[in-house]
Write a structure and sequence with these properties.
single chain, alpha/beta, 2 domains, 9 helices, 31% helix, 28% strand
C-alpha cells in the first residue's frame, strides 16, 4: 500500500502545471472541497479560489494547506500563533516577520491593523504583494536581524524554511539585505505595534535584540521557537524567553505542538 501511494504521489508531482491543476480541481470536486485552483502561465503562480476569497500562491506542493478553504487556513495559522487568545481591541501595526505569501494579512485586516510584511523569498513576496497590497511592491524583501547589513540567506522555499543560518538541503543561497526592526521603525515612523509575529527559522533572538526600542511600544509578541536553528536544529525558546522577560513581557500562553509562545507587555 505504501509503495502504491508513493508511486501515485510521484506521478502527480511529475504532471505539468496545467494538468496538475486539472487533476487537483477534479479531486476537490470528488472530495467535496469548495476551493478551486487557477494557473497563471505568465509567472507559474496559482490563485486559490474559495467562494469570494482568493489567495495567490507560488508553490504547488503547498496546495494541501487550503483543502478546507482559505478562511480555515488563515484561522488555523492564527491559532498556531495563539492569536485567538487576544480578545481586546487593538490599534497600530501587525508586524509579520516570515510572512510567506501573506496569509496573516487577512487576520491583520480583520482587526483593523496596519500590515507590515517581511519576506526575503522573491516569489513569496510577490504573492504577498498581490494578496495584501493590490500588487504594489510593499512587502519588505529583506531579513530582520539585530543590526543593518548584508548576510547569506539559505533558501528553502518548498517547505518555507529559508533561514539566515545554514540549514540541511537548502535549495539555494544568496546575499540579502538585513535590518533591525528598530532601524525600520525609525525610518517608517512606526510607533505603535499591536502584534509582532516572528517566524525566522532560528533568528528570533537576533530579531528581538534589534527591536529593543520597538518592543517598548509593542502590545503582544508571538514567536515560533521551534527546533529550526541551523543544521543542528536547535530551539530558540530559552533565549527568546530571556530577551522578552528582560524587555518587560510575560508569557501568557504557548503551543507545545509548534513551540510558539504568546507574550504580553506588562507596561502597555
Amino acid at each position: 500500500m505504501k509503495i502504491l501511494k508513493r508511486v501515485r504521489q510521484s506521478m502527480i508531482e511529475g504532471l505539468p502545471n496545467r494538468h496538475f491543476v486539472q487533476f487537483t480541481n477534479g479531486t476537490s470536486v470528488l472530495k467535496g472541497y469548495s476551493h478551486r485552483i487557477a494557473m497563471h502561465s505568465n509567472d507559474n503562480t496559482m490563485t486559490v479560489m474559495d467562494g469570494s476569497d482568493k489567495l495567490r500562491i507560488c508553490r504547488r506542493d503547498r496546495l494541501w494547506l487550503y483543502k478546507r478553504g482559505i478562511s480555515a487556513r488563515v484561522n488555523q495559522l492564527a491559532e498556531s500563533y495563539l492569536l485567538h487568545h487576544i480578545s481586546e481591541p487593538l490599534q497600530g501595526a501587525f508586524i509579520d516577520c516570515g510572512a510567506n505569501v501573506g496569509e496573516l494579512g487577512a487576520y491583520s485586516r480583520s482587526k483593523g491593523l496596519e500590515y507590515h510584511a517581511f519576506e526575503p523569498e522573491s516569489l513569496e513576496a510577490d504573492c504577498c504583494d498581490r494578496n495584501n497590497f493590490g500588487g504594489k511592491p510593499q512587502t519588505n524583501r529583506f531579513g530582520l536581524w539585530s543590526s543593518d547589513g548584508e548576510l547569506t540567506f539559505y533558501s528553502k522555499p518548498g517547505t518555507a524554511d529559508g533561514s539566515l543560518f545554514e540549514t540541511e538541503q537548502y535549495a539555494d543561497r544568496f546575499q540579502v539585505k538585513v535590518r533591525s526592526l528598530d532601524s525600520y521603525a525609525a525610518e517608517t515612523g512606526l510607533t505603535n505595534v499591536a502584534i509582532l509575529k516572528i517566524e525566522a527559522e532560528g533568528a528570533e533572538p537576533e530579531i528581538l535584540a534589534g527591536a529593543r526600542k520597538t518592543l517598548k511600544s509593542t502590545r503582544y509578541v508571538t514567536v515560533d521557537c521551534g527546533f529550526e536553528k541551523g543544521v543542528a536544529k536547535e530551539s530558540t525558546l530559552v533565549p527568546v524567553f530571556n530577551l522578552l522577560l528582560d524587555a518587560g513581557f510575560e508569557a501568557i500562553d504557548w503551543n507545545p505542538r509548534r513551540v510558539t509562545t504568546l507574550f504580553k507587555n506588562r507596561a502597555t
